[in-house]
C-alpha cells in the first residue's frame, strides 16, 4: 500500500474503490482553449503516470489535450495501492514498480476524461467559501510557532480552516459538479488498515454524490464531486491529538511529548486519534469526510460569487522529529555509504541543519531515486487561479505562496483585486514537502522531508464564466541559492505574465524528466494460479448470511464467496459486487494455495432491525 512506507501494510481487501474524477472547463469560442483538472483518489500525482495519461489523451484528441493543460492531482490518501510512482525511493515498500497498478490508474483516469469530454455542455461557474473548524489540526504546532509572531498574528488558527468551492452549473442553473479545496491529510485510516480505501476525501465525495443521486451506484452518478487536497503538509484529521499507546508503561494514554512526538523517548507508540477514536478509524474517516461534505453542501446551497469576483505516523525505524543531535543508527551510516554517494560540503550546506541520510539526488543506480525536475503549473479560469503544486506545502508555506502569487497577478495587471488563488496538490510530480525557512530549522517531519533542502529554490480571473481560460506549465529544476519555498514562489511568479488575456508564446522550460519505468525493478510476483474449490464455481456462496438471531443496528452481516485474486484482472467501471455503502463496505480476501475466498462484511445501518 502507499502512504505510510510500511512494508507490512499489504492489501487484504476493499473498503472503497479508488476513482479519478475529471473536470473540463472550455472556452466555447475557442474549443482548444481548455483545462482539464483530474482529482484522483491516489496518494499523489506522478510524472510517469501523468506522462502516459497525456500521451494517450493527446493521441485521441490531437491539439486539444496537452502537457500544458492537464493537471493530475492526488487527494493524498494513505490507504490506496502502491508501486505506481516511477522513482525508486517510494517504490521500496511496495517491492518495486507495479506496472499493473500504474496501468489501472492511467486507464481509469483516461476514461474519466473521455466521459467528461463527451458530456461537455454550456454552463457557468461560481465560487464560494465557508469555514470548517473541526476537521483538521496542525500536527506540528511547535514548528508552526517558529514562524514570525507578526505573521502568525494575521491568522486566527495554525491551520487553514477555509474551504473554497468551485461550482459547475449547466445552462439551466442546475448543479452538475463541484471542486472543493480544503487541507486535511488523508490519514484517518491508520497503517494497521489493510483494506484499499480513499480515506476522508473519497468518503466526502461518495457522501456528496450519494446525497444528490441516492439511488445511483457509486461511480455511476451524473453529478461529480471533487474534494481536492490543498496545502496539506502539516495537517492532520486526527483532531483529538496524539497520544501514547503504551500498555503497561507509565505514560500510556498521555499526550505524546510535544517537540518530538515521542513516548518514553521513541516514536513508535505515538498515535494520532481521530474523532471516532472510541469506535474505529473507519468511524473517524466517516466523520471527517462528512464534515467536508457538509461544508461543501453549505456553500453549494448558499451564496456564491460568479468567478469574477497529528503528528506524522511513526515508522519502524526510530527517527525522532526535531532532534539532529543524537547519533545516527549505525545501520543507516553503513547503508547510505554503500548505496548512495557521500554528500559533498555544498550539499551539506544546502540541507543544513538536516543531516543527510540517503543522498538520493545523486543516486542514479539502478535508476533515479528521486525527481530532480518537477512540473509546475498554473490554471486560470476567469479570476480563479489554481496553483498546481508538486508537493506538500505546510499551512504557512501555502499562505505565503497564495499571497505572493495573488499580489503578482494584481501588480502585473493580469487580474484585479478580485483575484482568487487556491493551491492544489501534491500534483503531477511528487517533490515531497515544502516548508517555510523557519519551520525547516525546527526539523520536524515536514522540514526533514523537504527534499531539496532549505536552500533549494528559485521557483513558483473576468467573470468566473467559462472564459477566458489560460494555462501554463513548465518543468523546473529548482537549483540552489534560495530556500525551497522562495524558489517555488519565484518559478510560479515567472508564469504569471503568460496568464494575461492577450499573451502569446510559451514560458521557458527545463527538459522534462526522462522516463524511469523502462528501467524499473519489481519484486511483486504475479498470480501464479487461481481456481475454484472442487465442485464450486466462481461466485458460489461458501458461507451464507446467518438468518438468526435478528440483526440490529450496529451488527455486522457477512457472507463468504468463491472469489479470485483481484490482481487476476483489474476491473474498471464494472464490478463483481454491488452495494450501497451507507457506512462501510468491507470485503476482504483470503488467498489459499489452490483457491481464493472473498468475505463481505456489511454493518447494519442505524434505524434498521
UniProtKB/TrEMBL annotation:
<comment type="similarity">
    <text>Belongs to the neutral ceramidase family.</text>
</comment>
<dbReference type="Pfam" id="PF04734">
    <property type="entry name" value="Ceramidase_alk"/>
</dbReference>
<keyword id="KW-0746">Sphingolipid metabolism</keyword>
<dbReference type="InterPro" id="IPR031329">
    <property type="entry name" value="NEUT/ALK_ceramidase_N"/>
</dbReference>
<dbReference type="GO" id="GO:0046512">
    <property type="term" value="P:sphingosine biosynthetic process"/>
</dbReference>
<keyword id="KW-0378">Hydrolase</keyword>
<dbReference type="GO" id="GO:0005576">
    <property type="term" value="C:extracellular region"/>
</dbReference>
<feature type="binding site">
    <location>
        <position position="392"/>
    </location>
    <ligand>
        <name>Zn(2+)</name>
    </ligand>
</feature>
<dbReference type="GO" id="GO:0042759">
    <property type="term" value="P:long-chain fatty acid biosynthetic process"/>
</dbReference>
<feature type="binding site">
    <location>
        <position position="76"/>
    </location>
    <ligand>
        <name>Zn(2+)</name>
    </ligand>
</feature>
<feature type="domain" description="Neutral/alkaline non-lysosomal ceramidase C-terminal">
    <location>
        <begin position="492"/>
        <end position="577"/>
    </location>
</feature>
<feature type="binding site">
    <location>
        <position position="433"/>
    </location>
    <ligand>
        <name>Zn(2+)</name>
    </ligand>
</feature>
<dbReference type="InterPro" id="IPR031331">
    <property type="entry name" value="NEUT/ALK_ceramidase_C"/>
</dbReference>
<keyword id="KW-0862">Zinc</keyword>
<dbReference type="Pfam" id="PF17048">
    <property type="entry name" value="Ceramidse_alk_C"/>
</dbReference>
<dbReference type="GO" id="GO:0017040">
    <property type="term" value="F:N-acylsphingosine amidohydrolase activity"/>
</dbReference>
<keyword id="KW-0443">Lipid metabolism</keyword>
<dbReference type="InterPro" id="IPR038445">
    <property type="entry name" value="NCDase_C_sf"/>
</dbReference>
<keyword id="KW-0479">Metal-binding</keyword>
<feature type="binding site">
    <location>
        <position position="185"/>
    </location>
    <ligand>
        <name>Zn(2+)</name>
    </ligand>
</feature>
<dbReference type="GO" id="GO:0046514">
    <property type="term" value="P:ceramide catabolic process"/>
</dbReference>
<feature type="domain" description="Neutral/alkaline non-lysosomal ceramidase N-terminal">
    <location>
        <begin position="314"/>
        <end position="459"/>
    </location>
</feature>
<feature type="active site" description="Nucleophile">
    <location>
        <position position="236"/>
    </location>
</feature>
<dbReference type="GO" id="GO:0016020">
    <property type="term" value="C:membrane"/>
</dbReference>
<dbReference type="InterPro" id="IPR006823">
    <property type="entry name" value="Ceramidase_alk"/>
</dbReference>
<protein>
    <recommendedName>
        <fullName>Neutral ceramidase</fullName>
        <ecNumber>3.5.1.23</ecNumber>
    </recommendedName>
</protein>
<dbReference type="GO" id="GO:0046872">
    <property type="term" value="F:metal ion binding"/>
</dbReference>
<feature type="domain" description="Neutral/alkaline non-lysosomal ceramidase N-terminal">
    <location>
        <begin position="1"/>
        <end position="303"/>
    </location>
</feature>
